[in-house]
């Protein structure tokens, strides 16, 4: 089987995707050790969910809302709970949750400033 550019690109994309999943998964893994360092998490509200319901789910899971982007239903949350992701996902008001982290950078002087 010959390695074509398409296969090479698909392989590289798969590698990046798996690496991304592997680096995010531990942030939400349930552990027995108590996590004491606060981390920032992004919580996306389900379409039509009430603000109070999302805030209640965040608090019940052990988080505190830092900021809110009401236009898209995105909540920036601080938590020390090692099970926050799994706990908040159980709420009908929450569509998704992810660790807030940098996923890419542009080299200085390249591209346009946003």
Question: How would you summarize what this structure contains?
Answer:
The chain is an alpha+beta fold and 114 residues long. It has one domain (5-99): Alpha-Beta Plaits. The protein has three helices and four strands; from the N terminus they run αβαββαβ.
Rg computed from alpha carbons, rounded to a whole number of angstroms = 18 Å
Uncertain segments of ≥5 residues (pLDDT<50)?
8-25
The count of β-strands is 4
Strand share of the residues?
Answer: 15-25%
Helix- and strand-based class? alpha+beta
| Strand ordering within the main sheet | 2-3-1-4
Largest sheet: 4 strands, antiparallel
How many DSSP helices? 3
Fold-level CATH name: Alpha-Beta Plaits
Q: Can you tell me the number of structural domains?
A: 1
| CATH 4th-level superfamily | Peptidase S8 propeptide/proteinase inhibitor I9
H-E string: HEHEEHE
Q: What does the overall shape look like? A: globular
The mean pLDDT is: 79
Specify the helix fraction band: 25-40%
First-last Cα distance: 43 Å
**Which architecture per CATH?**
2-Layer Sandwich
The CATH class is identified as Alpha Beta
What does this structure look like?
With 114 residues, this protein is of the alpha+beta class. The chain has a single domain, classed as 2-Layer Sandwich (Alpha-Beta Plaits). It contains 3 helices and 4 strands, in the order αβαββαβ. The protein has helices at residues 5-28, 51-60, 84-89; strands spanning 39-45, 63-69, 74-79, 94-99. A 4-stranded antiparallel beta sheet has the order 2-3-1-4. β2 (63-69) and β3 (74-79) form a beta hairpin. The longest helix has 24 residues, at 5-28. The radius of gyration is 18 Å and the shape is globular.
